[in-house]
Automatic annotation (TrEMBL), chain A:
Organism of this sequence: Brassica napus
Domain of life: Eukaryota
Entry's family note: Belongs to the class-I aminoacyl-tRNA synthetase family.
SUPFAM superfamilies: Nucleotidylyl transferase
EC class: ligase
PANTHER family: TRYPTOPHAN--TRNA LIGASE, CYTOPLASMIC, TRYPTOPHANYL-TRNA SYNTHETASE
EC identifiers of the protein: 6.1.1.2
Alphabetized UniProt keyword annotations: Aminoacyl-tRNA synthetase, ATP-binding, Ligase, Nucleotide-binding, Protein biosynthesis
The protein's name: tryptophan--tRNA ligase
TrEMBL record, chain B:
UniProt lineage: Eukaryota, Viridiplantae, Streptophyta, Embryophyta, Tracheophyta
Name of this chain's protein: YbaK/aminoacyl-tRNA synthetase-associated domain-containing protein
Top-level taxon in the UniProt lineage: Eukaryota
PANTHER family for the chain: PROLYL-TRNA SYNTHETASE ASSOCIATED DOMAIN-CONTAINING PROTEIN 1-RELATED, YBAK DOMAIN-CONTAINING PROTEIN
Ranges where the YbaK/aminoacyl-tRNA synthetase-associated domain occurs: 23-150
Residue span of region Disordered: 204-224
Family: Belongs to the PRORSD1 family.
Length: 414, 308
């Protein structure tokens, strides 16, 4: 889902000006005084709920399998109405998944893959269908790409997404340029009519009359409604005919929360169910520096096209270490696990809980050195990237066409 | 795609006088000569060429006309080695024909709109000339007036040149490239075939896909290797071929067995297998399923409806 919206609108009056507060919104993510993001405070600030252990246990019971590593490690840590979705699921009322990507660059890094990896798990575990939106129109407008280029990027990104392992009999991928029209467009207009300028300003935290003059509202309005519309099953009459009350669950990064607050506000007014959200924290950049990975700095991230050598290099040279300056000091007081990037990355991608605990203990108490941790991380990431590359190599244009075809999915709940 | 019968339809519409000869498929002029005698007309040799800036040319000449590629290249203003045989996929992408079928008539295709057509001026002295009408199991003879009429009807000029002009020097201060005006204004990028495209995208950022060097001979030749790695080659097969799929699964399983199996009791080993292999094998299986579905989907889009 887009996080480029309204860059041009101007952020003069945004709450970012006060550096004593942390800032999280779709355009800016900054910790307080350069420290860590306080996720508990964020949950309070946004008004969503924590994904606690009891919910995770419930997921395990309902799906009869180990919960995904991102749930166990608190990567996906907040939600809205996830418990209600589970209540309905227990009663036999299914749901569908919705996630998306703004295809602005060909280079995908690991941070980009996280929501897709988690969504794939949700699809498999709950056996539910998924719609994936590629907002090529929005990237075309705000990033000043040509229509053809944004469509091409959308298809290229679709290949990486498919390589994550989505089931073609349960997945519909669409690009805005291809799909907007018909029932989808009708919902866009319905949503746009519900969202007043002031309300939008309020949700996104802007204030000040000068914005009203500067805004060219219709395109912004349309953009605001675009992420909302796929949350409504009637936008996909070929998939969910007659199922207007089908619930939607949206895995996303927590900075997307404002968009969906707006959607949840509008939904009941249109007679639709409110979409539920399951939200993740940020995947840190290699060099740490409060905030998240950025596609514009190649050394801040591991890319799916990186070779084993490049991965090893990047981790060794750029991954911010919490180890001490000298071996003696390190053996004495151990590593600072709070800021150590390799351990953080392992907590995302090393599936074995026991091994991770062992590493944290040994490293934190000074018996394991940074080099060892980095070596293990390099192994884990290399294996992941290799697997992705193999799968990506098998994605043909025909496969993309199949995923993007407007077709019924008769076995979507099997 | 322009079915060759369209060529004959156009002949009939324009009342062009022609003769048609059907024969087994032929790839060379020598073979064609076995079935179409010189009394029917002058056989032609047809070259499909490409320059370094992805611009394409059809050169159609009498079989005994000497076509000097170096001279031609200079006359087009492309320097001495600026032109070579076009690769096979350009043949199908741009001209919609297969090997052995290059012909002036190929410019009837929309895809060939930027291809420059150069005809041997010696054709004009012949009663009739012989070409393939987009298919190498048919030949057609007609005179240049008929050919001109055909080209005109599809908005093309007939360009006849003296291919054997060989001034010394070919081009120089007082002798500008005389054919430069026939260089197409647009270059064309010929997309690679789907499976190759998929693998090239995954090549490391630092390694660019190898450019191919088509062999410069009279006959268009098959593409040389294109930088696709063996890893990605086998990836495609694993997801398409049941035997390769099973082999991959057994390879991974036995590898794990050999690395973990020493001294472990059987139950613990079975647990390890489940834990370590489930997610990976599920991923493999999903890709296998997706591949099969996509092939079926594609077949569906191509299938003819049942006759009532």
């Amino acid at each position: 889902v887009s996080s480029q919206l309204a860059m041009d609108v101007g952020k003069k009056d945004s709450i970012a000006s006060d550096s004593s507060e942390q800032v999280v919104n779709p355009w800016e993510v900054a910790a307080k005084d350069g420290g860590k993001i306080d996720y508990d405070k964020l949950i309070d600030q946004f008004g969503c709920q924590r994904l606690d252990d009891s919910l995770i246990d419930r997921v395990q019971r309902l799906t009869s399998r180990q919960p995904h590593v991102f749930l166990r490690r608190g990567v996906f840590f907040a939600h809205r109405d996830f418990n209600e979705v589970l209540d309905a699921y227990e009663r036999g009322d299914k749901f569908y998944l919705y996630t998306g990507r703004g295809p602005s660059s060909e280079a995908l890094h690991l941070g980009h893959l996280i929501p897709f990896m988690f969504t794939k798990y949700l699809q498999e575990a709950f056996k539910v269908p998924l719609v994936i939106q590629l907002t090529d129109d929005e990237k075309c407008m705000w990033k000043n790409l040509s229509v053809e280029e944004s469509q091409r990027l959308a298809r290229e990104n679709a290949k990486d997404i498919i390589a994550c392992g989505f089931d073609v009999t349960k997945t519909f991928i669409f690009s805005d340029f291809d799909y907007v029209g018909g029932a989808f467009y009708k919902n866009m207009v319905k949503v746009a009519k519900c969202v007043t300028l002031n309300k939008a300003m309020g949700i996104f935290g802007f204030s000040g009359e000068d914005h009203i003059g500067k805004l060219s509202f219709p395109p912004v309005q349309a953009c605001l409604s675009v992420p909302a519309v796929p949350s409504f099953p009637s936008s996909f009459p070929h998939l969910f005919p007659g199922k207007d009350k089908l619930r939607c669950l949206i895995p996303c990064a927590i900075d997307q929360d404002p968009y969906f607050r707006m959607t949840r506000d509008v939904a009941p007014r249109l007679g639709y169910s409110k979409p539920a959200l399951i939200e993740s924290s940020f995947f840190p950049a290699l060099q740490a520096k409060n905030g998240k990975m950025s596609a514009s700095d190649p050394n801040s991230a591991i890319y799916v096209t990186d070779t084993a050598k490049e991965i090893k290099n990047k981790i060794n040279r750029y991954a911010f270490s919490g180890g001490q300056d000298s071996i003696e000091k390190h053996r004495e007081i151990g590593a600072n696990l709070e800021v150590d990037i390799p351990v953080k990355y392992l907590s995302f991608f090393l599936d074995d809980d026991t091994e991770l605990e062992h590493i944290k203990k040994e490293y934190g108490e000074g018996r394991m050195l940074t080099g060892e941790v980095k070596k293990r991380l390099t192994e884990v990431l290399t294996e992941m990237v290799e697997r992705h590359r193999m799968a990506r190599a098998a994605v043909t244009d025909e496969m993309v066409d199949a995923f993007m075809a407007v077709r019924p999915l008769p076995s979507m709940f099997e | 795609v322009c079915n060759y019968r369209i060529i004959f339809w156009i002949f009939q519409e324009l009342q062009i006088d022609y003769s048609k000869y059907e024969h087994p498929p032929v790839l060379t002029v020598e073979e064609q000569a076995k079935y179409v005698s010189s009394s029917e007309g002058a056989l032609s040799k047809n070259l499909f060429l490409k320059d370094k800036k992805n611009r394409y040319y059809i050169v159609s000449a009498m079989t005994d006309t000497k076509v000097d590629m170096k001279v031609l290249s200079q006359r087009l203003g492309l320097g001495k080695g600026g032109i070579r045989m076009a690769p096979e996929e350009a043949l199908s992408e741009l001209l919609q024909v297969s090997l052995g079928c290059v012909t002036p008539f190929a410019v009837v295709n929309e895809s060939a709109r930027d291809v420059s057509l150069l005809l041997d001026q010696k054709f004009k002295n012949q009663t009739r000339c012989i070409f393939h009408p987009l298919s190498n199991d048919v030949s057609v003879s007609l005179n240049t007036l008929g050919l001109d009429k055909f080209l005109q009807s599809i908005g093309r000029d007939s360009v006849y040149i003296d291919l054997e002009v060989n001034a010394n020097p070919v081009v120089g201060k007082d002798q500008p490239p005389d054919l430069a005006v026939y260089v197409p204004s647009n270059s064309v990028v010929v997309p690679e075939l789907p499976t190759k495209t998929a693998s090239i995208q995954t090549a490391s950022k630092n390694v660019s896909a190898e450019k191919t060097k088509p062999v410069a001979s009279a006959k268009p030749s098959k593409l040389a290797g294109n930088g696709k790695s063996a890893v990605e080659d086998s990836a495609l097969l694993v997801f398409k071929n049941p035997e390769k799929f099973v082999e991959e699964i057994l390879d991974k399983t036995t590898a794990l067995l050999l690395s973990e199996g020493k001294g472990e009791n059987v139950e613990a080993l079975a647990e390890t297998f489940r834990k370590r292999l489930t997610s990976e094998f599920t991923h493999l299986a999903v890709m296998y399923k997706n591949t099969a579905y996509s092939q079926g989907f594609y077949a569906g889009t191509q299938s003819q409806p049942k006759r009532p």
